[in-house]
Amino acid sequence: MTETEGERKPARVVVADDQTVVREGIVMLLGLLPGVEVVGAAGDGEEAVRLVGELAPDVVLMDLRMPRCDGVEATRRIRARYPGTQVVVLTTYADDDSLFPALRAGARGYLTKDAGGDEIVRAVHSVLSGDAGLSPSVQRRLLERLSQAEPVPVPAAGEAPDGLTTRETEVLVLIGEGLTNQEIARRLHVSTATVKTHINNLFAKTGLKDRAQAVRYAYSKGLVRPPTG
Question: According to the model, what pLDDT value does residue 140 have?
Answer without folding.
Answer: 66
